Structure formats: structure tokens, C-alpha cells
Amino acid sequence: MGLRVTTWNVNGIRNPFGYAPWNQKRSFQAMFDILEADIVIMQEAKIQRKDLTDDMVLVTGWDVFFSLPRDKKGYSGVAIYTRNAKCCPIRAEEGITGVLCPPKSTTRFRDLPEDQQIGGYPREDQLLGIVDEATLDSEGRTVILEFPAFVLIGVYVPATRDDTRTDFRIGFLTALDARIRNLAAMGKQVILAGDLNIIRTDIDTAGCADQLRKEGMTLDDFLSTPSRRLFNQLLFEGQVVGQRDQGREQPVLWDMTRAFHPDRQGMFTCWETKKNARPGNFGSRIDYILCTAGMKDWFEDANIQEGLLGSDHCPVFAVMADRVRHGAENDSHIADLVNPVGMFKEGRRLREWTTRDLLPQSAKLLDEFDRRRTIKDMFAKRPAAPFKPIQQQPATEPGVEFSIDFGKSFYIQVPFTATAPVLSSTPSATPPPLTDFFFSSSSSSSSSPSPTTMSRTPSNATPLPRITRAPPPPPSKRAAPNMTSQSVKKPKTTVVTKDRGKAAPGPSQSSLRGFFKPKTPALDTIDEETLDGEASGEGKGEEEEGGSPARAKAPAAPSQAASSPVKKTSISTSQLDGIGRSPGPGGLPHDALADGKQEMAAAMATAPDEDKVFDPIESKESWSKLLGKKRPAPLCE
């Protein structure tokens, strides 16, 4: 379905929630889903700014624009809700004359630069001058939104309640007529929607003939009232008695509901609640959706929804087709015409709506609602941004270069004078040359080099010989112990597999012993003790100091496990002095290898632990002695 525009005088913005079906979920989002609308124009909100609440403004998936009365409480008020998934306005204004100012600004709308204003503001010679322009826009009666293809005017025209409001009513209608005609003269398409409080002709009200007879009026007199005459001069096929007024010689708008139902009787949108006139359909049609001639063919349906309760008015809707003819161009998708450039193309969304698309007039940017979200918005899925690799920039000055290999090569190049590193995720076929020195930290149980390498490459350095620690010898296999004839469960051994492309894991928590080991092992003497396996039956290898993973242990005889002494391996630091003190051709100071030498010494000094195999029979008996005793119950004092 295309774009659906709905207008509804709700007679209080919360009033519909007292009726079915709105009282089931009591939320604006559910209301709009029932209406199946993409743009909703509400009249008679009857609130002030201080009455705005989260459920009115922070509607998930919707943006909203309000025009509320400045002084009067519980009076008038217009709101326009737009569905973010279907449309997004590019400009917004409050008021019909352009004398109001945008939020947080002292510049009037009509004084803004041309690229920031909607335009078409009434001139002084087009206004009657009876009522001040600021007064006309002070009652919260007009919200204007501009889309790339048209201008939408949501309006609530003053009603004729007594003679004191006649001047205000005519002054407002005159300004509205001038604004629409000026916009049309600029070449812009216009949609006027809302409660106009005007009965167009006798077919649009119940009992018109009887009422005229009682008042002694003719149909021409009925059509010649000031507001009705002005309205009919604005419409195509409007009934105008006599000559048209100066400046209103040509009609501008089409009545879309009547265009689709030209002879329909009883198509009323408002009923008097005090007389309970709605069940008998004794009402009038005063709610309209009008459009300029260039948009008439865009609509494929328009009607009223008299079955929906919640107010003394009923909703009126009009639906635009999916594809429409816009000017001299070929058929365009409606989504391309009601969203900013670059958001849709041929009906396909190119980018998602974000808060950056909010206009300054949006109620979501009011101080009390800005930077706030609903719970649904917080957990809503955002589309992932497309990955754009950052190209590696060539180093123009000497610096330090690190390379970390996790299946792919990632290089971080930090010049000596740079303030921030340049990251690159582009896989490299050949890593940068290691010129000064090369340090490799390898696991004690694997002969493959570590994936983490560090190199320092000055510009005028000569390569040094690579220094690596020889891989430790594989643990010798021991003969399996002679098992007794009793049925014994095979002890479980842990096999630790290592991938070449993964970094060495840190110390595991297989035993509590790792928490009591010193974090920095001494370089002079490194002790390795074997656990007494009498109370533990896990059969897991002990963790090495320095973060190397535990090795899988082969079974050993119980006698060997019980009598194995504590082994001590002593390595002097002088054995490693030659590594750091041998100067290379590049003249690299030995202090650069200080950190690497300590880690190499700690890793090389770690000798393989004595393997330990626990006798399952002995372990079972020890647990039986511990848990099998019958302990006396405590005595009560």
C-alpha cells in the first residue's frame, strides 16, 4: 500500500482511550496501527506544552509536531504524527502567517533564509488587517510540514460560536487562503487536512432544507455566507454565487472524499453529542482532505471511518498510490517523494531513519524530551554499519612497529612524532621486516612460534640475528601401571589442543594452587613441585608460571607418585647476559632486551612437572572412610 493520510478531531488527545478499540492497549502506537495510517493529523488536542507526556511524544517509530495554545488551557491544539518507516519531512513550521519563531531562535519563520523556509507567507495586502498576525497564530491551530513532493497543512479552523469570534474566524480563513494560493503559485503541491468547521453545501449536512425553511433562508443565502463562499472559491467544483472575489478567480484544491463519492448522501464526519445524534447519523461533514490539481491523480482512495468511536468526529483518510507521476518525470515511487534525498531509491531504503533526521520543530527535541528514548527504542535492533577497512598509511618517519597475528596480520605503526596510531585490518601477505631484534614467546608445550611478535625498526638499523627460545623437549612417555584384576574405572586425562592461529591462553582455574603462586617468579631459583594426589582425582596438569597452559599428563605408577621428591632447577641470570649484552651491527643497546630477557628466563627455567597418576582404588577408599562414618547426632542442651 502507498501512503495513507488520516485526519481526526479527537476532542481531547486522550479522549479516544475511553472507547473501544482504543481502550485495549491505550497507546498511540496501537491507535495508529489500527488506523493503518502513515501520517495522522489530530485537532483539538486540548493540552498545553506542560501537559505533554512521554507516551504522547516518545512514540516508537513515530515523529510528532505540535502547535499548542499559548494562553488558553484545554483549548484547540494541533498535532501531526509521521511514521518514520514511510516518510520524513524536510521542513516544519508552526502557524499560518510565519510570524512565529523556531524553537530556541528569535528569527521568525518568514525571515529565515529561503533554503530554510517553506515560503508562501501571506502579504499585507492579502490580509484583512482586522486581527493581528501574532494573535492568529497564538491559539495553536496550524502545523505545516514540507516533504520533497508537497506541503502538508494540518489545520483546525475556528468555529462560529458567537459574533465575538467572527472577525477572528474570517481573518484566519483569509490568511489560510492566501498561504495556499501563494504556495501553489510557487509551483508547490499542497495538501490541506483537518477540521475546517465549514459545511461545503447542502448535501454535507442533515436536514438542511428544513433548517433553511425555519430560518427563512434560500440555498443561495446559505452558500453566500462569508466563510462558505471563501471556501467554495478555493475548491474545484465549488458552488459560488455571483462573481468570484478579486484574487480568488481560480480554484486551487480538490475535495478528495467527495471526488471519490460525488453523490453519496449521509457522508458525515461530526455529530452533536448532547443530542446523541450519531446513532441516527444526523450530522455534518466538516472534516476534509484537500489537495492541489497536480496531486489529484496520486490518490487511489478516500473515505470516512464513521464506525470508529472515540470522539464526536470520525477519522477521514486518503491513500496515495505506490507509484505516481511527479511533474514531467516518469512514474516515481511514493517513498522517494516523501523522504529526504538519499533515503529511498525506487522504493528501496538506502539508509535508516536516525535522530539526525529530526527537525528543530520536532517535539522529541524539546528540553524535557531531548536525548531520551523509550525502552523499546533502547532494545531495538540497529542495522550494522558497513565495514570499511582503513588503509595502512606509509610511515614517513622512523617509529615502532608491532605485528599481531590472529589468522590475519594486523599492523600498528606508531611514528615517534605521531599522536595516534594508524590501524589497518588489511591482510598482509608478508609481515614487515624484523631488523633490530625479534622476540618470540612460545608455549612450553608447543614447538610452533607464538603468534605475537614485536619488532623495532629504526630507519638506519642493520638486522640482528634472530633470538628465539628453543622449544622444550616433549614429555617422555611412561609405562602404564599394572592394573589389578578388580574392575577399575579408567582415569580421565585432559588433552589440551593448541591452534597455531590462536594466542596462548592465560592461567586456568583447574586448582586453587594457582592463586597462591607468586606472580613474578625469581630468576635465580625456580621450584617445581608435584602435587600429592591423595585427595584430588582430576588428573589435570598443573599450570606453569608465566601463563603457559597446563600439559596433558600420562599415567604413572602409584609408587612413583607417592615417592617423587621435590625437584629444584637453578638457572643463573648470568647465563642470559650474553643475549642482551652482545652488541649488534646496528648498535642496539642491551636495555631494549631487558623485558624480553626476563620473560625468556622465566619460561626457560620452568621445567616439566612430575607426572602424577592417582590410584582410583585408593581414592575411593579414602572417600569411603571420610563419608561412610556414622557420626553421632548433636545433643540438645
Short description:
The chain has 14 helices and 25 strands. With about 625 residues, the chain is of the alpha+beta class. The longest helix has 20 residues, at about 165-185.
Task: Quickly list its features.
six-stranded mixed beta sheet, 25 strands, alpha+beta, DNA-(apurinic or apyrimidinic site) endonuclease activity, Deoxyribonuclease I, Chain A, double-stranded DNA 3'-5' DNA exonuclease activity, 637 residues, Endonuclease/exonuclease/phosphatase domain-containing protein, DNA binding
Please provide a written account of the structure.
The chain has 14 helices and 25 strands. With 637 residues, it is an alpha+beta fold. The chain folds into 3 domains: 376 residues, Deoxyribonuclease I, Chain A (4-Layer Sandwich); 57 residues, no CATH class; 109 residues, no CATH class. The strands form 7 sheets. It has a 6-stranded mixed β-sheet with strand order 3-4-2-1-14-13. InterPro entries: AP_endonuc_1, AP_endonuclease_F1_BS, Endo/exonu/phosph_ase_sf, Endo/exonuclease/phosphatase. Pfam families: Exo_endo_phos.
